[in-house]
Amino acid sequence: MPAELQPSAGRAVDIAAGALLGVAATSALLGIANSILVVALAAGWVAWRRGWLRGRPHARALQPPLLLFSAASIASAAASRDPLESFDKLPRLLVFLVVPLAAAVVDARWWRRLVMTLGACTTLFSLWGFVQYSRGADSLADRIKGPFSHYMIFAGWVLLAVVVLLGEMLLSHERRRWWLVLPVVLGTTALVLSYTRNAWVGLAAALLLLAAVWRRWLLFVIPAVLVALWLLLPRPFIERGISVFDLRQPANYDRLCMTMSGLQMIRDYPFTGVGPGMVRKLYPLYRRDDAPRWSVPHLHNNPVQIAAERGLPALAAYLWLLGAFFTVTWRSLPRLPAEQRAAVGAVMAAMLAMTVAGLFEYNFWSAPVQYATLVLMGAGIGRAEERG
């Protein structure tokens, strides 16, 4: 009997796929998500060792940049100001195995289940946030964060899910896709109530991509939506949106100061960076005198943080990863069947949203957001590599 028809093979692959969905759904609770991740990787390893994944997609174009990023991280830890601290961060690199695994096991059947999972979680997390908002988390001083530890992590996860769901709703031809309206509306509302500007900018970038490439009628809808938001939203939300363009706004100026400090770290340690986990410890030494904050957890910018922490080779790997993903997925679109093309297009829009948001927030290494991002990245490129 062929391996792909053996019941044990199907069970191992389905366990891996189901566990990946669990990782994306429970990433707010890292203890649970990490346990499920171990199950996913173990099942994937069994399936790979026994040849049950032969002939499936493996995200081949993304493996070299992921390996380069890992190698650059190891070199950075070896040259770190505190090698023990930095080496302690390296086991996290194993999460990159999610990408080829998701590409291999998330087929059309499991993609539909992944979309359903994202829809259910987005609905739950949004309602959670609404309850928090009604109980006083309704200002910049106290924002909704759902089940997550921080409002920006909440906004990052919801942004990722909302864009995938919106892409599926707009691009898919399945009649049942309209159930996605509810989680999209709830999730978008939660993003607005979170006051998180990087998520707003990321969502706008995704909408422009979906409109310009796949649904051009949206280009006419977007201005009307902006006018409606201007008329209907309370003044604090309007002022928050306008503040994106004000460099004198304290948070914006703080990001400029962090960027300048990060560039100084890069100049001092161009090839290895200061070491994984060391930016937070060394920031006071590089802080500008007029910076609003004395200490920051990271530099709130993916490229700057990666280069300052792990060196220019790691930054090159990050840019290579994004370039390879968008190149492969974009080139695959013309040959794909409609539903497969919808899945790939939805993930493309989501990755663009996260990339743009990542210019104002370090979302690439935020575990709850990263886990879901890597699952979707792998699933998206896997659907692109499938034979249409």
How would the blueprint of this fold be written?
Layout: H1 7-25, H2 30-49, H3 63-78, H4 83-87, H5 98-105, H6 108-134, H7 151-171, H8 181-193, H9 197-214, H10 218-232, H11 235-242, H12 250-268, H13 279-286, H14 302-310, H15 312-332, H16 338-357, H17 367-385
Key terms for this structure?
388 residues; mainly alpha; 0% strand
Write down the overall mean pLDDT.
Answer: 93
- Give the count of structural domains: 1
What is the approximate shape? globular
| Topology pattern, helix = H, strand = E | HHHHHHHHHHHHHHHHH
The class by helix and strand makeup works out as mainly alpha
Low-pLDDT regions = 1-5
Fraction of residues in helix: 55-70%
The radius of gyration over CA amounts to 21 Å
DSSP, total strands: 0
Largest sheet: none
Total count of helical runs of at least 4 residues = 17
Distance between the termini: 26 Å
β-strand percent reads: under 5%
Question: Can you walk me through this structure?
Answer:
With 388 residues, this protein is mainly alpha-helical. It is 69% helix and 0% strand. The protein has one domain. Helix 7 (151-171) runs parallel beside helix 9 (197-214) and helix 9 packs antiparallel against helix 16.
Short description:
The protein is mainly α. It is built from 17 helices and no strands.
